[in-house]
Amino acid sequence: MSVFRLRLALTALAMAASDAAGAEESAALVNANAPQELFSAGYLAQVLGSLMLVFVCLFAVVYLLRRFNGVRIGPGTPLRVLGSASVGQREKVVLLEAGKEQLLLGVAQGSVRTLHVFDKPVVVADTDASAAPDFAAVLRSANPLGGRS
């Protein structure tokens, strides 16, 4: 008879545990369905923090690309492409200025060959004309009111 009572006690205990778990699940569902504040301070801090993290990662990638790719920005670059012409589907002739010399290069798929090195410059590179106008000059020229804001 003691086995029967033990079995009955274990069954009652299991039923009580399942009722408690069911009550917890229903309470969790009620809390999950409750409306949450969209513009709470914690939510806005999380959004702004995520945005700042994205910007920091973006600037870090740009910095690393510039540093390890050797990309130079500005007028001090020693190489400039003065002109190019396509002579086929995948072939080009490129006029390149390297320092004080001008080179004519043939560029094809998988190869680059020097066609000619010029003694005298073919294209005179004017430093003022080649420099891009600054933003203020472009804005002044596009402003319909003239120079006034």
Walk me through this protein's architecture.
By secondary structure, this protein is an alpha+beta fold. Helices cover 49% and strands 21% of the residues. It has four helices and four strands, in the order H-H-E-E-E-E-H-H. It has a four-stranded antiparallel beta sheet with strand order 1-2-3-4, with no helix packed on it. A hairpin with a 5-residue loop joins strand 1 (79-86) and strand 2. The chain is elongated, with a radius of gyration of 36 Å. The N and C termini lie far apart (101 Å). The model has no long low-confidence stretch (mean pLDDT 77).
A few lines on this structure:
With 149 residues, the protein is α+β, with helices and mostly antiparallel strands. Helix content is 49%, strand content 21%.
